[in-house]
Amino acid sequence: MSALQEQAVQMIHDLSDDNVSFLIEIIQRLMPKNIEKETARILSNDEGLQAFHRLDEARMEIWNYLPEDFD
């Protein structure tokens, strides 16, 4: 396991079950079901940039659901 993976595991280990559940839901929504097909589709048009802007806009909404002391 790489140092980065170990760091991620440690960060997740320190979270409460509710926060881990929330994190898993975010990861599932962000990861395409078929990565190769999704990558080809994004590269073939401007949807990649649009997806980035949607993600950036969602970031502020996500913060509303996190506790104030969430790091």
Structure description:
- It contains four helices and no strands.
- The protein has 71 residues and is mostly helical.
- The longest helix has 17 residues, at 47-63.
- The model has no long low-confidence stretch (mean pLDDT 78).
- The SS-based structural class is mainly alpha
Average predicted local confidence, pLDDT: 78
Largest beta-sheet details = none
Outline the low-pLDDT stretches. none
Order of helices and strands: HHHH
Alpha carbon gyration radius: 15 Å
Task: Please report the total strand number as a whole number.
Answer: 0
From the N-terminal CA to the C-terminal CA, the straight-line distance is 24 Å
- How many helices? 4
Percent range for helical residues? over 70%
- The percentage of residues in β strands lies in under 5%
Shape: extended
Features:
71 residues, mainly alpha, 73% helix
Q: What are the SSEs and their pairings?
A:
Blueprint: H1 3-13, H2 17-30, H3 35-44, H4 47-63
Give a quick rundown of the structure.
The protein is mainly α and about 70 residues long. About 75% of the residues lie in helices and about 0% in strands.
